[in-house]
Amino acid sequence: MQPMPPSQPEIGILPVREASIVEAGKGAGIACDKHSAAGSVSQRACVFCGSRVVLYPIADALHLVHGPIGCAAYTWDIRGALSSGPQIHRNSFSTDLQEMDVIYGGEKKLYHALTELIDLYKPNAAFVYSTCIVGIIGDDVAAICKRVAAEKGIPVLPVNSEGFRGTKKDGYRAACEAVYKLVGTAPTEGIPPHSINILGDFNLAGETWIIRDYYQRIGVNVVSCITGDARVEDIRRAHGAKLNLVQCSGSMMHLAKVMERDYGIPVKRVSYFGIEDMSAALYETAKFFADDPTIMERAQALVRDEVALIWPQLRAYRAKLQGKKAAIYVGGAFKAFSLVRALKMLGMETAVVGSQTGGAEDYKQLQEMCDPGTIIVDDSNPLELAKFCLQKDVDLFIGGVKERPIAYKMGIGFCDHNHERKEPLAGFIGMLHFAREVYSSVMSPVWQFAPRRAAKLKGAQP
Ligand code: SF4
């Protein structure tokens, strides 16, 4: 006889969190864009981590974490961002501050670490990340960076990313401010007129390469990708592009706006996930370069050919996944929009959706695009997410590394749409990978062994 699972107590919501949870169709505004509630155990990372994930894929730069070793270890190779050339970014360098450094200051240690690493690895730039303790002891990181830059002849850029300074979103901003110091520092001769910068793609599992290839095939030149598979020299010339296409708006909109202000480069928000959004990104770009109608013709041909390649398999997955329910919890809300659309294309319903850093406008859009009754949540925590998944009895959870154990503990299929994935999910081919992964996870026979789900799945094996 199977042992009965123990009955679970009802999971409550902290009163301070209630305003950050709404249901689609009820018209209520959501509380967002604020610091996490104390005691809520937010899924968000710290300011330093926010900066590190954004800048880390710059592959020919040195990334030095000024702080205790834990901050560096916690973010080592965090994005899984691939490089087509140098691999300096994949190291996790740290000044490893200890008790005596906290008492006497860590500036000397920082100077020696920087000069030694630059001599050893010959990077084209260096980023120095300030962590919590550096903010407390007051090391003059900017002065050390300036001194080393003068001595070594490369840009050495401080990142003001002390962990306690705000939310992960503040870390994105600190990263944008640091990288912006590179923009505009190299000549732009030779950049073709139909040229773009890709902002907010981090080349997870090689996704930037897929997107770059699409743009090149329709006749649009990519000046720089900030920061997937990025090179310092490309970023220095980024002001020569005619258009900035921003995917991860939470992390890169600040940089795009500053470039618009200072260089007059217009900004478009795009997404490369799902057939609809990928096609729209190409068409939007082609429309912007309307002076050359062949770009639109090539974009239409590309979309037609790529969709024809994957459509038969997508239809087969859709037939199996029809009516299944999913929960989405991701960093930025723009990714959530694409996932809601992609799930719809697979015949699935989004029952729960939330993000770490969405703004009021993002949540308004989510409310409009989701079915009535969908739970929408900002800056959630593990208990809330578990409660919503149980309440809606979802078949799949789409999230990142911190959401994976929540799903597995409840016997729910999981799809990693964040740092740890090894297969590209962007572009048309990415949609096929996504559908295959969703199908494999949702329909896996392993769930029959999860006591909570055994009854539901009995007799419904694929
Ligand atoms: S919160 Fe502070 S100590 Fe913790 S990882 Fe972030 S910077 Fe380091």
> What would you give as the CATH superfamily of the largest domain?
Nitrogenase molybdenum iron protein domain
Query: In percent terms, what proportion of residues is strand?
Result: 5-15%
> Which ions and ligands are bound to the chains?
iron/sulfur cluster
Helix-strand category: alpha/beta
Instruction: Briefly note the CATH topology name of the largest domain.
Output: Rossmann fold
- Rounded average pLDDT: 93
Q: How many structural domains can be distinguished in the coordinates? A: 3
Shape: globular
CATH architecture of the largest domain: 3-Layer(aba) Sandwich
What is the assembly state of the chains in this entry?
Answer: single chain
The CATH class name of the largest domain reads Alpha Beta
Number of strands: 14
Percent of residues in helices comes to: 40-55%
- Spatial order of strands in the largest sheet: 1-12-11-10-13-14
End-to-end CA span: 25 Å
